[in-house]
Write a structure and sequence with these properties.
alpha+beta, three-stranded antiparallel beta sheet, single chain
Length: about 130
């Protein structure tokens, strides 16, 4: 009789269900937060590249270091990057009269207590320069 009464007793079921579901929910929310940081960095890279490409097209053509500084100053969302990143490179192509601006961003993504891989995002933009 006592076994049947114990099997029909539903007290404490909600606590057990919450103990199972809560870690999954916390992990999911933290994952969304980490992904949003990557989306923010991606938007900051696109903004910096756009500013640099616009700056590269003015006449007289600015130096590569000036374009690099313009892009670096326009970047946002990169506070949590690995040391030494983001990197900005400006490569001139004299035959096509263009400059290719590239930004690379690396971030170690971690999910609470689990270390995962390093995420690398690289974007390039080609700007036609005035001659």
């Amino acid at each position: 009789m006592r076994l049947f009464a114990l099997l029909r007793d539903r007290r404490g079921a909600a606590v057990i269900e919450m103990a199972i579901a809560l870690p999954v929910l916390i992990f999911l929310i933290y994952g969304i937060f980490e992904a949003s940081l990557l989306f923010r960095a991606n938007a900051g890279m696109q903004h910096g590249l756009g500013e640099g490409a616009r700056y590269a097209t003015i006449y007289p053509t600015p130096s590569d270091s000036a374009i690099n500084t313009k892009v670096t100053n326009a970047l946002f969302g990169m506070e949590d990057a690995k040391p030494g990143f983001p990197t900005v490179t400006v490569v001139p192509d004299t035959t096509a009269k263009t400059k290719t601006i590239t930004v690379t961003y690396k971030k170690d993504v971690d999910f609470l207590f689990m270390a995962t891989r390093t995420v690398t995002i690289t974007h390039s933009k080609k700007a036609y320069v005035a001659q």
